[in-house]
Amino acid sequence: MRLSPSELILNADGSIYHLNLIPTDIATTIITVGDPDRVAEVSDYFDSIEIKKGKREFLTHTGHLNGKRISVISTGIGTDNIDIVLNELDALVNIDFQTRKVKKNRIRLKFIRIGTSGAIQAEIPIDSWILTELAIGFDGLLHFYKNELSDFMEMENAFILQTGWSPKKSRPYIVEFDRDLANKFESNRIRLGITTTNTGFYGPQGRTLRLEPSTDGFIESISNFRCRDKQITNLEMETSGIYALSKLLGHQAVSLNCILANRVTGEFSKNPEASVRELITFALQKITSD
């Protein structure tokens, strides 16, 4: 079926609408970062850069490191942006822009998120790294797509019950990382964790400035959650969307989290830039190790 111009939106130069990219602009290994300024922090390590394009908050650099072609793209903050980025990156490799039809032979992309995060367990040190094994999405993005992702229904129900999750909020969903891709990032420096993806930074993460959150003791509530000896380790704002859409579209995804804050102890990293740089170099070394 041919996709209409209102479904597959292309710019005058033939690039995809929001990302401003054409199919040859991206590699099959893609690093996602939230902050556009972090794109250059990653690509500075490349041996060469062939593509630099941007539109709005979506900045893309594609280049080579140790003979491997890699793209790094900024998503901005939140799963609403992830919906744009993941769908448009998939379209670049799996839809023919000339015929406007889905290709028969699908290309599988590898997504590696390098982001910052806050821990919600007191024993998790500042500047440590967490590889998200399970993402719990509070954002509701998955519910807008037909899916059969129900492997963790027991845990979802346990979470709703233990935390007294309000029915006014979107039902939490749980998605697993890609185990094969995760194996590349094994290290005694990194721990596996369960990450919640929140719909905002303040009220949705239990912060109070002038507005009072609707849920008292949010951090305590989710940090006390237990299911089969598993507990939530950290929270951020993109991972569940990346994992969910990657599963539905047939791609691989992992999320690497640099812990800059601990919401239980109140600590914050004394040198966050150095911590993130260290995680970037670790990730690039693992990506180019094959």
Structure, explained:
25% of the residues lie in helices and 27% in strands. The protein has 290 residues and is α/β, with parallel strands linked by helices. The chain is globular, with a radius of gyration of 19 Å. The model has no long low-confidence stretch (mean pLDDT 96).
Distance between the termini: 38 Å
Task: Give the overall form.
Answer: globular
**Average pLDDT figure:** 96
Low-confidence stretches: none
Strand adjacency order, main sheet: 7-11-10-8-12
Describe the largest sheet: 5 strands, mixed, barrel
Structural category is: alpha/beta
Rounded to an integer in angstroms, the radius of gyration calculated over CA atoms is 19 Å
* Count of distinct strands: 13
Which percent range describes the beta-strand content? 25-35%
Q: What order do the helices and strands follow?
A: EHEEEHEEEEHEHEHEHEEH
Q: How many helical stretches?
A: 7
Helix content: 10-25%
